[in-house]
Specification:
Protein name: homocysteine desulfhydrase
Number of helices: 15
Family: Belongs to the trans-sulfuration enzymes family.
CATH architecture of the largest domain: 3-Layer(aba) Sandwich
Number of strands: 14
Catalytic activity: L-homocysteine + H2O = 2-oxobutanoate + hydrogen sulfide + NH4(+) + H(+); L-methionine + H2O = methanethiol + 2-oxobutanoate + NH4(+)
Number of domains: 2
Largest sheet: 7 strands, mixed
Structural class: alpha/beta
GO molecular function: cystathionine gamma-lyase activity; homocysteine desulfhydrase activity; methionine gamma-lyase activity; pyridoxal phosphate binding
CATH superfamily of the largest domain: Type I PLP-dependent aspartate aminotransferase-like (Major domain)
Strand content: 5-15%
Order of helices and strands: EHEHHEHEHEHEHEHEEHHHEHEHEEHEH
Pfam families: Cys_Met_Meta_PP
Length: about 425
């Protein structure tokens, strides 16, 4: 990418200490290639192979006009870290490229990205339609919006476009979905649901964290905004906290950016650098996550201590047919299973695993297990847990990239202690 013209006559000029982000020349690259050839901030006469960390709170200028212009827009000169930063912008453009979006906004966490989008696009008295099974943090944020700002919410099944059409009101503004729901792995009918939303003029927001852009790109199915917790698969090494929102068109990105910089949800440069370091191996990791989940889910489904397994790759899963169409590259690395012995069996299993770790989050190289009812979905009432299909004996598994037979040996010995 060529340098923008400099000089006082051009408000688009870039301070000579910072060059624009360099992009791969070929727009049709496959995800495996795009993940390696990420945009990187250019320097005089060369481009670094690894994105540098611009660990600075601000930038100095020779030209007052360039300084002033950089304060007003997300693609201007780098001015102040809360607005943007070369390392952070490199991450934003990398994820936008992987998702096929026009622009992106990085935030300090996945919930930071989600709340920035919701708060920027909703006003008191507006109406939101959301799928009825959501990540617990998102469900809590929506409940807070409803209680604090009078946002009305209607919940619908994730695969019922007619329910969206029936729920639309004059003040409906937004449709919120998850590609693969946490933790019971229902798959949203993104083409149908987004089409119904667009018919009503709604902004369609999709949380694609569980799929990653390797398995699904919701913008291709009609979404307007895609959000990720980069803490999960994008970072991939359990060492970073961050979020990102990708936008189909620049105007919507600008609207959310204007709000987000005042909200102060900005990602820091070091977290952006850690995520950029993880992205090149994302396709390789996702393939192994999916392979390990497939082996574990299949064997658990045949174990006498297990009452049910919830993974869209299994033919008996309610979303299997939809997932086969929407997720041709893999069914995801997260699944849940219900132990026949209920809560006591769940506690015994999680206490007995040795290779898998009892920990929050997902998407790192290690396999993690947790009890959704008391951790990720602790804010839900008993009725809401039941509606989501989460039982006292439900265990969520985030498959890592270890050898699958080692993982199964660990699971098998732990199952033997569930009574």
């Amino acid at each position: 990418m060529s340098e923008r013209p400099a000089g006082p006559a051009s408000p688009d000029a870039v301070h000579p200490a910072v060059r624009p982000v360099a992009h791969p020349a070929e727009p049709a690259l496959r995800p495996e290639t795009r993940a390696v050839h990420l945009p990187r901030p250019a320097v005089d006469g060369s481009t670094p192979l690894s994105t540098p960390i611009y660990q600075t709170s601000g930038f100095a200028f020779d030209d007052p006009a360039v300084f002033a212009d950089g304060m007003t827009r997300p693609d201007g000169a780098f001015v102040y870290g809360r607005l943007t930063n070369p390392t952070v912008r490199a991450l934003e453009e990398a994820v936008a490229g992987l998702e096929g979006g026009a622009a992106a906004l990085a935030a300090g966490s996945g919930m930071g990205a989600i709340n920035a989008v919701l708060l920027a696009l909703l006003s008191p008295g507006d109406h939101l339609i959301a799928q009825d099974v959501l990540y617990g943090g998102t469900a809590a944020a929506i409940a807070e919006l409803a209680g604090r700002f009078g946002i009305e919410v209607t919940y619908v099944p994730q695969d019922d476009p007619d329910a969206v059409r029936a729920a639309v009101r004059p003040r409906t503004r937004l449709l919120y979905l998850e590609t693969i729901a946490n933790p019971m792995t229902q798959v949203a009918d993104l083409p149908g649901m987004c089409a119904a939303g667009r018919e009503a003029g709604l902004t369609c927001v999709v949380d694609n964290t569980f799929a990653s852009p390797v398995l699904c790109r919701p913008l291709e199915h009609g979404a307007d905004v895609v959000v990720h917790s980069v803490t999960k698969y994008l970072g991939g090494h359990s060492d970073v906290l961050g979020g990102v929102a990708v936008f189909a068109e620049p105007g919507l990105h600008r609207k959310v950016w204007d709000f987000a910089i005042e909200l102060g949800a900005t990602l820091d440069p070091f977290a952006a650098w850690l995520t950029l370091r993880g992205l090149p191996t994302l396709p390789l990791r996702m393939a192994r996550h999916c392979e390990n989940a497939a082996l574990l889910a299949t064997r658990l489904a045949g174990h006498p201590a297990v009452a049910a397994v919830h993974w869209p790759g299994l033919p008996g899963h309610p979303s299997h047919a939809l997932a086969a169409r929407l997720l041709p590259a893999g069914f995801g690395g997260v699944f849940s299973f219900d132990l026949a012995g209920g809560r006591a069996a769940g506690d015994a299993f999680m206490a007995a695993v040795r290779l898998a770790r009892l920990a929050p989050s997902l998407g790192g190289v290690e396999t993690l297990v947790l009890h959704p009812a008391t951790t990720s979905h602790r804010s839900l009432t008993a009725a809401e847990l039941a509606r989501a299909g989460i039982g006292e004996g439900t265990v969520r598994v985030a498959a890592g990239i270890e050898h699958p037979e080692d993982l199964w040996a660990d699971f098998a010995q732990a199952l033997g202690r569930t009574g």
